[in-house]
Design a protein that fits this description.
Layout: E1 3-9, E2 14-20, H1 22-50, H2 54-98, H3 106-109, H4 126-167, E3 186-189, E4 196-199, E5 202-205, E6 211-213, E7 218-220, E8 231-238, E9 241-251, E10 258-259, E11 264-268, E12 278-285, E13 288-290, H5 302-312
Antiparallel strand pairs: 1-2, 3-4, 5-12, 6-11, 7-8, 7-10, 8-9, 9-11, 9-12, 12-13
Length: about 325
Protein backbone atom coordinates (compact mmCIF):
# COMPACT_ATOMS: atom_id res chain seq x y z
CA UNK A 1 0.00 0.00 0.00
CA UNK A 2 1.47 3.42 -0.92
CA UNK A 3 2.91 5.47 1.92
CA UNK A 4 2.70 9.30 2.21
CA UNK A 5 5.76 11.62 2.24
CA UNK A 6 5.93 15.41 2.44
CA UNK A 7 8.23 17.83 0.67
CA UNK A 8 8.56 21.64 0.80
CA UNK A 9 7.23 23.60 -2.17
CA UNK A 10 9.17 26.89 -2.52
CA UNK A 11 6.49 28.41 -4.72
CA UNK A 12 3.65 28.00 -2.25
CA UNK A 13 5.92 28.09 0.80
CA UNK A 14 4.15 25.10 2.22
CA UNK A 15 4.61 21.36 2.72
CA UNK A 16 2.81 19.24 0.29
CA UNK A 17 1.91 15.65 0.61
CA UNK A 18 3.73 13.32 -1.85
CA UNK A 19 2.64 9.84 -2.45
CA UNK A 20 5.58 7.25 -2.88
CA UNK A 21 4.82 3.79 -4.05
CA UNK A 22 6.48 0.69 -2.61
CA UNK A 23 8.29 0.10 -5.91
CA UNK A 24 9.86 3.55 -5.79
CA UNK A 25 10.88 3.00 -2.18
CA UNK A 26 12.48 -0.31 -3.06
CA UNK A 27 14.45 1.27 -5.91
CA UNK A 28 15.78 3.95 -3.61
CA UNK A 29 16.79 1.44 -0.98
CA UNK A 30 18.45 -0.76 -3.61
CA UNK A 31 20.39 2.21 -4.97
CA UNK A 32 21.62 3.15 -1.48
CA UNK A 33 22.65 -0.50 -0.81
CA UNK A 34 24.47 -0.80 -4.15
CA UNK A 35 26.33 2.47 -3.54
CA UNK A 36 27.45 1.19 -0.14
CA UNK A 37 28.67 -2.07 -1.63
CA UNK A 38 30.62 -0.24 -4.37
CA UNK A 39 32.21 2.09 -1.84
CA UNK A 40 33.19 -0.85 0.36
CA UNK A 41 34.76 -2.70 -2.60
CA UNK A 42 36.76 0.38 -3.59
CA UNK A 43 37.95 0.74 0.00
CA UNK A 44 38.96 -2.93 0.24
CA UNK A 45 40.78 -2.76 -3.13
CA UNK A 46 42.76 0.29 -2.05
CA UNK A 47 43.57 -1.31 1.30
CA UNK A 48 44.61 -4.61 -0.32
CA UNK A 49 46.86 -3.20 -3.06
CA UNK A 50 48.24 -0.06 -1.51
CA UNK A 51 48.25 -0.66 2.22
CA UNK A 52 50.32 -3.58 3.60
CA UNK A 53 49.05 -5.25 6.69
CA UNK A 54 51.48 -6.33 9.44
CA UNK A 55 50.96 -9.95 8.42
CA UNK A 56 51.81 -9.20 4.79
CA UNK A 57 54.93 -7.34 5.85
CA UNK A 58 56.02 -10.29 7.97
CA UNK A 59 55.47 -12.69 5.06
CA UNK A 60 57.42 -10.46 2.70
CA UNK A 61 60.33 -10.27 5.13
CA UNK A 62 60.34 -14.05 5.59
CA UNK A 63 60.17 -14.57 1.83
CA UNK A 64 63.16 -12.27 1.27
CA UNK A 65 65.12 -14.06 3.97
CA UNK A 66 64.25 -17.41 2.35
CA UNK A 67 65.41 -16.18 -1.06
CA UNK A 68 68.70 -14.98 0.44
CA UNK A 69 69.30 -18.32 2.16
CA UNK A 70 68.50 -20.30 -0.99
CA UNK A 71 70.81 -18.14 -3.11
CA UNK A 72 73.60 -18.68 -0.57
CA UNK A 73 72.93 -22.44 -0.53
CA UNK A 74 72.96 -22.62 -4.32
CA UNK A 75 76.22 -20.66 -4.46
CA UNK A 76 77.87 -23.01 -1.96
CA UNK A 77 76.72 -26.07 -3.91
CA UNK A 78 78.14 -24.61 -7.13
CA UNK A 79 81.52 -24.04 -5.46
CA UNK A 80 81.52 -27.55 -3.98
CA UNK A 81 80.63 -28.95 -7.38
CA UNK A 82 83.58 -27.14 -8.98
CA UNK A 83 85.96 -28.56 -6.37
CA UNK A 84 84.52 -32.04 -6.82
CA UNK A 85 84.86 -31.77 -10.61
CA UNK A 86 88.57 -31.01 -10.18
CA UNK A 87 88.98 -34.04 -7.88
CA UNK A 88 87.14 -36.25 -10.38
CA UNK A 89 89.35 -35.00 -13.22
CA UNK A 90 92.55 -35.73 -11.27
CA UNK A 91 91.13 -39.09 -10.23
CA UNK A 92 90.52 -40.16 -13.83
CA UNK A 93 93.51 -38.58 -15.56
CA UNK A 94 96.23 -38.77 -12.90
CA UNK A 95 95.67 -41.26 -10.10
CA UNK A 96 93.94 -43.97 -12.15
CA UNK A 97 96.51 -43.56 -14.92
CA UNK A 98 99.30 -44.19 -12.42
CA UNK A 99 97.61 -47.31 -11.10
CA UNK A 100 96.57 -48.50 -14.58
CA UNK A 101 92.91 -48.44 -13.57
CA UNK A 102 89.96 -47.58 -15.80
CA UNK A 103 88.21 -44.23 -15.21
CA UNK A 104 84.98 -44.21 -13.20
CA UNK A 105 82.12 -44.63 -15.71
CA UNK A 106 80.07 -41.51 -16.39
CA UNK A 107 76.90 -43.47 -15.62
CA UNK A 108 78.17 -44.01 -12.07
CA UNK A 109 79.23 -40.43 -11.47
CA UNK A 110 76.21 -38.81 -13.13
CA UNK A 111 73.27 -41.22 -12.83
CA UNK A 112 69.80 -40.30 -14.00
CA UNK A 113 68.28 -39.22 -10.72
CA UNK A 114 64.62 -39.94 -10.01
CA UNK A 115 62.60 -36.77 -10.44
CA UNK A 116 61.78 -35.29 -7.05
CA UNK A 117 58.07 -34.35 -6.90
CA UNK A 118 58.02 -33.13 -3.30
CA UNK A 119 57.85 -29.47 -4.34
CA UNK A 120 55.63 -29.79 -7.40
CA UNK A 121 52.46 -29.05 -5.44
CA UNK A 122 53.87 -25.81 -3.96
CA UNK A 123 53.55 -22.30 -5.30
CA UNK A 124 55.47 -21.45 -8.44
CA UNK A 125 56.97 -18.35 -6.84
CA UNK A 126 60.60 -17.49 -7.44
CA UNK A 127 61.63 -18.59 -3.96
CA UNK A 128 60.18 -22.09 -4.30
CA UNK A 129 61.66 -22.52 -7.78
CA UNK A 130 65.07 -21.63 -6.43
CA UNK A 131 64.57 -23.99 -3.51
CA UNK A 132 63.64 -26.83 -5.85
CA UNK A 133 66.73 -26.20 -7.99
CA UNK A 134 68.93 -26.15 -4.90
CA UNK A 135 67.51 -29.47 -3.73
CA UNK A 136 68.18 -31.06 -7.13
CA UNK A 137 71.77 -29.80 -7.06
CA UNK A 138 72.21 -31.14 -3.56
CA UNK A 139 70.89 -34.57 -4.62
CA UNK A 140 73.25 -34.71 -7.58
CA UNK A 141 76.19 -33.58 -5.47
CA UNK A 142 75.42 -36.25 -2.88
CA UNK A 143 75.50 -38.98 -5.53
CA UNK A 144 78.75 -37.64 -7.01
CA UNK A 145 80.39 -37.47 -3.59
CA UNK A 146 79.35 -41.05 -2.87
CA UNK A 147 80.80 -42.22 -6.20
CA UNK A 148 84.01 -40.28 -5.60
CA UNK A 149 84.36 -41.68 -2.10
CA UNK A 150 84.02 -45.19 -3.50
CA UNK A 151 86.60 -44.40 -6.18
CA UNK A 152 89.09 -43.13 -3.60
CA UNK A 153 88.58 -46.32 -1.60
CA UNK A 154 89.47 -48.29 -4.73
CA UNK A 155 92.56 -46.16 -5.33
CA UNK A 156 93.62 -46.67 -1.73
CA UNK A 157 93.48 -50.43 -2.23
CA UNK A 158 95.38 -50.08 -5.50
CA UNK A 159 98.03 -47.95 -3.81
CA UNK A 160 98.64 -50.57 -1.14
CA UNK A 161 99.09 -53.18 -3.88
CA UNK A 162 101.06 -50.99 -6.31
CA UNK A 163 104.46 -51.64 -4.74
CA UNK A 164 103.71 -55.37 -4.72
CA UNK A 165 102.57 -55.22 -8.34
CA UNK A 166 105.73 -53.38 -9.42
CA UNK A 167 107.94 -56.07 -7.90
CA UNK A 168 105.99 -58.70 -9.85
CA UNK A 169 106.51 -57.12 -13.28
CA UNK A 170 109.67 -58.33 -15.11
CA UNK A 171 112.01 -55.35 -15.11
CA UNK A 172 115.67 -56.46 -15.04
CA UNK A 173 118.01 -58.48 -17.23
CA UNK A 174 118.14 -62.21 -16.45
CA UNK A 175 121.97 -62.17 -16.85
CA UNK A 176 124.38 -59.62 -15.45
CA UNK A 177 126.70 -57.64 -17.76
CA UNK A 178 124.45 -58.42 -20.70
CA UNK A 179 124.94 -55.89 -23.52
CA UNK A 180 123.54 -57.61 -26.58
CA UNK A 181 121.20 -60.37 -27.74
CA UNK A 182 122.36 -63.09 -30.09
CA UNK A 183 118.83 -63.71 -31.36
CA UNK A 184 115.79 -61.52 -30.81
CA UNK A 185 112.02 -61.89 -30.67
CA UNK A 186 110.22 -62.66 -33.95
CA UNK A 187 110.83 -64.90 -36.95
CA UNK A 188 114.30 -66.49 -36.84
CA UNK A 189 116.08 -69.49 -38.39
CA UNK A 190 115.99 -72.52 -36.10
CA UNK A 191 119.52 -74.01 -35.65
CA UNK A 192 118.31 -77.62 -35.63
CA UNK A 193 115.22 -77.56 -37.86
CA UNK A 194 116.88 -75.17 -40.37
CA UNK A 195 113.60 -73.36 -41.03
CA UNK A 196 112.37 -69.78 -40.52
CA UNK A 197 109.92 -69.92 -37.61
CA UNK A 198 108.58 -67.81 -34.75
CA UNK A 199 111.11 -67.19 -31.99
CA UNK A 200 109.05 -66.50 -28.86
CA UNK A 201 111.84 -65.09 -26.70
CA UNK A 202 115.41 -63.83 -26.81
CA UNK A 203 118.65 -65.82 -26.80
CA UNK A 204 121.54 -64.51 -24.74
CA UNK A 205 124.94 -66.18 -25.09
CA UNK A 206 126.91 -66.79 -21.90
CA UNK A 207 129.40 -69.39 -20.60
CA UNK A 208 128.00 -72.54 -19.08
CA UNK A 209 127.33 -72.11 -15.37
CA UNK A 210 126.62 -68.34 -15.56
CA UNK A 211 123.99 -67.50 -12.89
CA UNK A 212 120.48 -66.76 -14.13
CA UNK A 213 118.40 -64.30 -12.10
CA UNK A 214 114.64 -63.97 -11.58
CA UNK A 215 113.49 -60.78 -13.27
CA UNK A 216 110.59 -60.27 -10.85
CA UNK A 217 109.10 -61.66 -7.64
CA UNK A 218 107.12 -64.84 -8.18
CA UNK A 219 106.53 -68.51 -7.52
CA UNK A 220 108.26 -71.39 -9.29
CA UNK A 221 105.79 -73.23 -11.50
CA UNK A 222 105.69 -77.00 -11.84
CA UNK A 223 104.59 -76.93 -15.50
CA UNK A 224 106.76 -78.41 -18.26
CA UNK A 225 106.57 -76.34 -21.48
CA UNK A 226 108.19 -79.08 -23.59
CA UNK A 227 111.36 -81.13 -24.00
CA UNK A 228 112.80 -78.71 -26.56
CA UNK A 229 113.43 -76.22 -23.77
CA UNK A 230 115.70 -78.65 -21.92
CA UNK A 231 116.06 -77.85 -18.21
CA UNK A 232 113.65 -74.96 -17.72
CA UNK A 233 112.28 -72.76 -14.93
CA UNK A 234 108.90 -71.04 -15.29
CA UNK A 235 107.95 -68.33 -12.78
CA UNK A 236 104.39 -67.21 -12.06
CA UNK A 237 104.49 -63.55 -11.01
CA UNK A 238 100.79 -62.81 -10.73
CA UNK A 239 99.11 -59.80 -12.34
CA UNK A 240 98.95 -61.89 -15.56
CA UNK A 241 102.77 -62.17 -15.89
CA UNK A 242 105.01 -65.23 -16.35
CA UNK A 243 108.68 -65.63 -17.30
CA UNK A 244 110.50 -68.64 -18.75
CA UNK A 245 114.23 -69.49 -18.52
CA UNK A 246 115.30 -72.39 -20.79
CA UNK A 247 118.32 -74.58 -21.72
CA UNK A 248 119.72 -74.35 -18.18
CA UNK A 249 122.54 -76.60 -17.03
CA UNK A 250 120.76 -76.98 -13.69
CA UNK A 251 118.09 -75.38 -11.51
CA UNK A 252 118.60 -73.56 -8.23
CA UNK A 253 114.91 -73.58 -7.20
CA UNK A 254 112.09 -76.10 -6.81
CA UNK A 255 108.38 -75.98 -7.78
CA UNK A 256 106.24 -73.99 -5.37
CA UNK A 257 109.19 -71.98 -4.06
CA UNK A 258 108.76 -68.22 -3.80
CA UNK A 259 111.57 -66.14 -5.25
CA UNK A 260 112.54 -62.47 -5.22
CA UNK A 261 113.69 -60.31 -8.09
CA UNK A 262 117.46 -60.75 -8.55
CA UNK A 263 117.53 -64.18 -6.89
CA UNK A 264 119.53 -66.92 -8.65
CA UNK A 265 117.13 -69.52 -10.06
CA UNK A 266 119.50 -71.56 -12.27
CA UNK A 267 122.61 -71.62 -14.43
CA UNK A 268 123.23 -71.19 -18.16
CA UNK A 269 123.57 -74.41 -20.17
CA UNK A 270 122.77 -75.95 -23.55
CA UNK A 271 120.16 -78.61 -22.72
CA UNK A 272 117.27 -79.34 -25.06
CA UNK A 273 117.25 -78.22 -28.70
CA UNK A 274 120.16 -75.77 -28.41
CA UNK A 275 123.20 -75.25 -30.59
CA UNK A 276 125.39 -73.71 -27.90
CA UNK A 277 125.56 -72.45 -24.35
CA UNK A 278 123.00 -69.69 -23.89
CA UNK A 279 119.83 -68.60 -22.06
CA UNK A 280 116.50 -68.58 -23.84
CA UNK A 281 114.30 -66.05 -21.99
CA UNK A 282 110.57 -65.40 -22.48
CA UNK A 283 108.00 -63.00 -21.02
CA UNK A 284 104.32 -64.05 -21.09
CA UNK A 285 101.60 -61.44 -20.54
CA UNK A 286 97.94 -62.58 -20.33
CA UNK A 287 98.97 -65.88 -21.90
CA UNK A 288 100.63 -64.17 -24.89
CA UNK A 289 104.39 -64.21 -25.43
CA UNK A 290 105.75 -60.68 -25.83
CA UNK A 291 109.15 -59.17 -26.63
CA UNK A 292 111.25 -59.39 -23.42
CA UNK A 293 113.47 -56.49 -24.54
CA UNK A 294 110.71 -54.03 -23.63
CA UNK A 295 110.95 -55.16 -20.00
CA UNK A 296 114.66 -54.41 -19.51
CA UNK A 297 114.23 -51.05 -17.79
CA UNK A 298 115.29 -51.10 -14.14
CA UNK A 299 119.02 -51.92 -14.27
CA UNK A 300 120.15 -50.57 -17.61
CA UNK A 301 121.38 -47.31 -19.10
CA UNK A 302 119.81 -45.77 -22.21
CA UNK A 303 122.95 -46.61 -24.20
CA UNK A 304 122.87 -50.25 -23.11
CA UNK A 305 119.17 -50.50 -23.89
CA UNK A 306 119.67 -49.09 -27.40
CA UNK A 307 122.47 -51.58 -28.03
CA UNK A 308 120.32 -54.51 -26.88
CA UNK A 309 117.34 -53.27 -28.89
CA UNK A 310 119.36 -52.97 -32.10
CA UNK A 311 120.92 -56.42 -31.72
CA UNK A 312 117.49 -57.96 -31.07
CA UNK A 313 116.14 -56.69 -34.41
CA UNK A 314 118.58 -58.68 -36.55
CA UNK A 315 116.96 -61.56 -38.41
CA UNK A 316 119.59 -64.24 -37.86
CA UNK A 317 119.82 -67.82 -36.73
CA UNK A 318 118.45 -68.50 -33.27
CA UNK A 319 120.36 -70.67 -30.82
CA UNK A 320 117.24 -72.64 -29.87
Amino acid sequence: MPKSLYHFNPKTLSFEKVKVSFKQMAKRLLWVFASGIAFALVFVWIAFYFVDSPKVKILERENNELKTEVEYLSSRIDKMSDVLYDIEDRDDNVYRTIFEADPVPTSVRYPLLVEDTRLDSMSRSEAYNMLRDANKKADQLTVRLAAQSKSLDTLERLATRKSEMLTCIPAIRPLKNMHEISSGFGRRYHPVLKTLRAHTGVDITAPKGTPVYATADGTVSGENPGSGYGIVVVLNHGYSYQTLYAHLSKKAVRPGQKVKRGQVIGYVGSTGMASGSHLHYEVIKNGQKVNPVYYFNSDITPEEYNSILESSKKVNQALS
